[in-house]
């Protein structure tokens, strides 16, 4: 799940058809897409051929509405996604593609574990790249009125790829949200960051691991990855740690965290300088990490905190880090309990972004604040005890 789920791309202000970006008759919507394509300079024949076979996909809409997998807490989610077999397979592929990883590290300063983790989680190292028709998926989600501003530009990017001979609207398949290839990139990202990693003169993200890895690295660099720097590292926190200081909202230098008693679990700190945060994905009784500035780049790839935390952690495992110290965090809330908590937080004036049952950044921040208000340890981890107090 790349930037389709992470970045709300604004429609071009000058677009003559931006007033009606979604909904209505599907045939009328296709006509509107063609008209906008012509305004963008796409040849009429290209737009006609691209749209000729497009159909609305109910299966895509169903998947868009059913993303409960990302509601699992970090420990549960990470244990599901990180198996010994997946770890060993990643290490084998690191050796197999050592040359391209060396090239990526030299050109972009991105460690191989980072790309291996995305490759693993997005498509199980290329084995399952999705069988949804990509053109159908993009047009369906552009027509749907939930997030048209994200997907409508992707339709025109796919048309550009089609004009270049790099996309077949009738045959190109991928994930339900329109991503393509081994590391799942959207058409705009392919246009901007597609790279020929194997030297055959074309970019093929579905069958060339070198192309996919090189393109993924280019995209991370474009998103702001800081070359040669770490992303997260497991730490141990002192007993008197101020839990309200944890969370991505608070940034300090590594030296300041060390002065507060934060210690790396294994050896010295991997990072230095400002902009580091302490992350406790399941509260004060669970594992703890120091997050460096590169960790924030992950949220440009996917906005799910649980996914990001797991991908970043798996990247460290692929580079030799030990299994985290799980601790004994309090049980999390069910989906219905989370909705009830969010409704009660909203009633107290907190903006949690809606009662959707997902523990996002807004809910975590509200939980942390209300915990402090109630005199509880403000670790941003919602529990049944907190729900009962509210």
Automatic annotation (TrEMBL):
Residues 26-315 form the Transglycosylase SLT domain. GO terms for biological process: peptidoglycan catabolic process. It holds the Pfam family PG_binding_1. Keywords: Signal. Residues 1-18 form the signal peptide. GO terms for molecular function: peptidoglycan lytic transglycosylase activity. Residues 334-390 form the Peptidoglycan binding-like domain. This is Lytic murein transglycosylase. It comes from Roseivivax lentus. The lineage of its organism: Bacteria, Pseudomonadati, Pseudomonadota, Alphaproteobacteria, Rhodobacterales.
């Amino acid at each position: 799940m790349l930037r389709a789920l992470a970045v709300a791309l604004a429609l071009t202000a000058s677009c003559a058809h931006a007033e009606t970006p979604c909904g209505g008759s599907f045939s009328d919507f296709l006509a509107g897409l063609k008209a906008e394509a012509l305004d963008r300079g796409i040849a009429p024949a290209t737009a006609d051929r691209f749209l000729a076979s497009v159909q609305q996909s109910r299966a895509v809409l169903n998947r868009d509405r059913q993303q409960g997998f990302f509601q699992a807490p970090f420990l549960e989610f990470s244990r599901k996604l990180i198996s010994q077999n997946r770890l060993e397979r990643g290490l084998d592929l690191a050796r197999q593609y050592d040359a391209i990883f060396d090239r990526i590290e030299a050109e972009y300063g991105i460690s191989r574990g980072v790309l291996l983790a995305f490759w693993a989680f997005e498509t199980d190292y290329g084995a399952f790249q999705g069988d949804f028709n990509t053109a159908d998926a993009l047009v369906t989600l552009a027509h749907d009125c939930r997030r048209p501003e994200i997907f409508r530009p992707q339709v025109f990017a796919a048309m550009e790829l089609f004009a270049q001979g790099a996309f077949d609207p009738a045959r190109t398949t991928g994930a339900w949200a329109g991503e393509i290839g081994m590391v799942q990139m959207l058409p705009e990202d392919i246009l901007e960051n597609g790279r020929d990693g194997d030297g055959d003169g074309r970019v093929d993200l579905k069958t060339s691991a070198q192309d996919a890895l090189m393109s993924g690295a280019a995209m991370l660099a474009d998103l702001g990855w800081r070359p040669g720097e770490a992303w997260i590292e497991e730490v141990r926190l002192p007993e008197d740690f101020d839990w309200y200081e944890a969370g991505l909202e608070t940034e300090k230098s590594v030296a300041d965290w060390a002065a507060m008693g934060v210690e790396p679990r294994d050896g010295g700190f991997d990072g230095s300088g400002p902009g580091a945060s302490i992350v406790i994905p399941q509260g004060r009784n669970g594992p703890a990490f120091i997050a460096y500035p590169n960790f924030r780049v992950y949220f440009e790839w996917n906005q799910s905190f649980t996914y990001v935390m797991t991908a970043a952690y798996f990247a460290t495992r692929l580079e030799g880090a030990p299994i985290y110290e799980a601790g004994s965090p309090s049980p999390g809330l069910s989906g219905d309990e989370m909705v009830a908590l969010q409704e009660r937080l909203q009633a107290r004036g907190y903006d949690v972004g809606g009662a959707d049952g997902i523990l996002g950044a807004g809910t975590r921040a509200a939980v942390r604040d209300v915990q402090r208000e109630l005199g509880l340890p403000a670790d941003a981890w919602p529990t049944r005890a907190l729900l009962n107090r509210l």
